[in-house]
Design goal:
Elements: H1 3-84, H2 89-103, H3 107-123, H4 128-164, H5 168-181, H6 186-198
Helix pairs in contact: 2-3, 3-4, 4-5, 5-6
């Protein structure tokens, strides 16, 4: 191949390479432009999607705040209601007197005061929940006092029967059992003194 033809082919090749390079560059620019355009189109949609989520979160926060405020208001009303309830003085005095008798071992007197307190509480105009609270407060001591009295009376009754049958030692045991649980039971104290005198133990 002669030199002019080689030069011509080189020129043609260079032109083709330049044309291909130019076409590729345009294609890349179009692709990049398309991506930018797609991102711009997607961006408003994402913004629109984000706005409802923000609104939903704000609504949930507002609801939660309202619920908290309602709970606080309800608690305040309950506290105020409890603070405004005053226990009548006669009821508090009867309960205090009954408790003092019980702690001193004067169970008959304590039981009487507890019974009076129960009647006063039930007949009062106090709210039902306050009544229940007061009754629960005195219930255990009241029941204990009644049980002690009943048991001591049973021993005393047994002693009187045994004494009538002249079974003095057994009668003495019964009276001592009564005093073991109710040391200030005056009826039993007197009965034991009489029995011991009868037995010549004094």
């Amino acid at each position: 191949m002669n030199r002019p033809n080689l030069i011509l082919m080189s020129i043609i090749t260079a032109i083709l390479i330049t044309a291909l390079a130019f076409a590729g560059g345009c294609k890349d620019e179009r692709t990049a432009a398309g991506q930018v355009s797609a991102e711009q189109e997607a961006s408003p949609e994402q913004t629109e999607d984000a706005e409802p989520e923000e609104e939903e979160e704000s609504t949930e926060e507002a609801i939660a705040e309202d619920q908290d405020e309602e709970e606080e208001a309800s608690q305040e009303n309950t506290d105020e209601a409890e603070e405004t309830v005053e226990i009548p003085e006669d009821i508090t005095e009867e309960i205090e007197t009954a408790d003092n008798y019980f702690n001193e071992g004067m169970y008959a007197e304590a039981a009487k005061e507890y019974r009076d307190a129960v009647r006063a509480i039930e007949d009062s105009d106090l709210p039902e929940d306050i009544k229940e609270e007061l009754l629960d407060k005195i219930s255990q001591n009241h029941q204990d006092a009644e049980n002690i009295i009943e048991t001591a009376r049973m021993h005393h009754s047994n002693a009187m029967t045994l004494q009538y049958e002249k079974r003095f030692e057994e009668a003495k045991v019964e009276l001592e059992a009564a005093l073991a649980i109710y040391p200030k039971y005056q009826t039993v104290i007197d009965a034991l003194d009489s029995l011991e005198a009868l037995m010549g133990l004094e």
